[in-house]
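so my prof wants the structure for this chain in the tokens format not the other one, which i didnt know existed until like an hour ago. anyway here's the sequence
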Amino acid sequence: MTTYVGSRTPRIDSVGKVTGDAIYAVDVQLPGMLHGAVVRSPHPHARIVSIDVSAARDVPGVKAIVTGADFPHRFGSAIQDQPFLAMEKVRYVGEPVVAIAATTEHAAQRARDLVRVEYEELPVVADVFAALAEDAPLVHPDLHSYQRGGHEIVPHTNINTLYRHKRGDVEAGFAAADYVFEGEYSAQGLSHVALEVHAAIAEYDPSSQGYTLWVSTDRPFFLRKELTDGLGLDSTQVRLKVMQVGGSFGGKGVPIAEAVAVTLARQVGGRPVRVELTREEDLIATQSRVPAVMKLKTGVTKDGFFTARQAEIIWDSGAYTAYTVGVAIRGSQTIIGPYRIPNIEILSRQVYTNKQITGSYRGYGTTQVTWACESQMDEIAHKLEMDPIAIRLQNGYEEGDPYINGQIMHGVGLKETITRTGEEIGWGEVDRKPAPHLRRGKGIATMIKPTMTPSSSNCVINLEEDGRVVVVSAAPEIGAGQDTVLAQIAADAIGVAMTDVRLPATDTAMTPYNGPVASSRTTYHMGNAILEAGGEIRAQVLELAGEQFNLDPETLTMTDGVISDDDGVELITLKDLLKRYAGEGYSITAGSRFSTAGSPLLKADPGVEWISSIFWMLCTQAAEIEVDIETGVIRVIKVAAAADVGKAINPMTCEQQIEGGVVMGLSNGLLEEFKLDNGRILNGSLADYKVATIMDMPEITPILVESFHEEAPFGAKGIGEPAAAATPPAIGNALFDAVGIRITDLPITPEKVLQALAEKETTEQET
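here's what i got, hopefully its the right format
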């Protein structure tokens, strides 16, 4: 029985955020703090001939000017290929070249404008096809010599990641098929557009040769490792204090503002240096979603069963790799979709181009591949004259099915998400022509995503003398409700009121290790750690109470801080119990480490166990849209979105995650894209880079499916990422249902719709 788990509990951080009391990295003010500014490259690819900073040094208030030659270090999670400041050459427009610290923002910006950099322009690798050409210029001629992990590259090319996966015999599968479908699909690069821009403050300690940083990040220990590895420091020499995070969506995990801040902090005698990006810098000079071009070849029988799938994906990492290697590997695996396909073959290549760096983005590759998988799934259904829901139910994963590496899947509520979504959208019922110039249609899409596996989380829980609980963990609140959900778990695990649970901010010098607040892993992993440590706290409290009342602790319970016997008689409050021991300096503390390594649920075929996921995220969405055939404008009327959450710790927070994901997916599918000209972003401001607003909101109906996961805290799985992935293909499939055209390259713009309608009309006239 639970008191808080499963309840629609309001967010515990809400008051601070609506009143302005919450402190973000952009709010931090420190004594003696300096301000940073950055000279950025105007070229996508060029050699740095000379840098003249003489005029900039004369600006009053300037305390430091740093170039790549002054700070010759590189960082990178999978490949150490990215300099803190450009060294010898620049590889994308917006790359930091010179960093300046001054006493005021104005002085720093004035000095920045006086720096003169002479460049020699070099050939530009503008897209993935140019990158793969035999005579392509090499973005990184020294790729083979960089320090990196164990993944495969192709030396002396632009291919920084090469991944293959095979299961079964695809040629035999195609031979057994009645139909073979082939198609090419593309998904664009996207900005994270978090409300809070990138910002960091760094302070260097000359005595320890270490740094303290005030940051906004979703993965403090990963970020610390990237910085320490790049700087050649021990882990204790970099301390990260994590402020409130004003949105991340995967974008605040790599050094961006932090990389510039540490270069300046080293030069200013121990004074802190603040670096805050402008909104324009945040768009063009951080990291975006990895663009992808995907080719699918799929064999099916006339009855609609899969026989084989062959997939080829080319990912665009931009100028550096950041966190894209994992996208190219883990993301590519989900292009099979949540379907039983006996014979598969995947070829995934990621290449360097002279464009903005790319990396983690909500869904970690699944938003791209779901577009391809579900668009082709709809094509198959229509060709076979099968209902799009029926074909998904026929082929969808069930409890106990093997994944592509042989792992037996557990906690699979996929088919319920499909059926409930169809019911909510009113599948099969549509007013197709509400006006002469309007057409309506409905579409459906589903998806699958793994979580980072194996990974671990640690926490320490202290029960204070006044009965309050302090949960010490490195799970920053990034706007998704993590603090609230973890407080609910802690309150029920211990048996205290939720109002008595406190979660202090993450500080890598004080909080134990945790993997990232990413991959939708926090509720499952940190939740399990808190559940175990909380159980130990409860046991210690009940042991004290047993001694006090001469009762067996096993017969006692504690709820909302009140201890009762097995007859339900209230004996004492926790606070009063602790007061009796206060004079003895009694302390109740428990720590826990939870890791998924070694779970029997991860067992798989030899050699590919690493592909297993401790839980699987499954989501289905159906969209009803209205198309104006005169303008090409699509209006999304309603989205029904069902997610398999395992168990909803907080149903309201789950629904909010789904609603936010749907709006993000709508924005991705219809509006957002970088307009590029030979590596240059042409729409690098929010005046030109369009995102969905409240005016674009459809009716959204979140649906929570609870499949229950046996190793999860109270059965709960992650939910944060899937909802953004299914929206674009659901809209694209609804477009086909409405007007009989299919767009294969995102976003689905009015111009593309009108062009496809014109081509369709021409084809119909010719036939």
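also thought this was worth mentioning. Residues 522-549 form the longest helix (28 residues).
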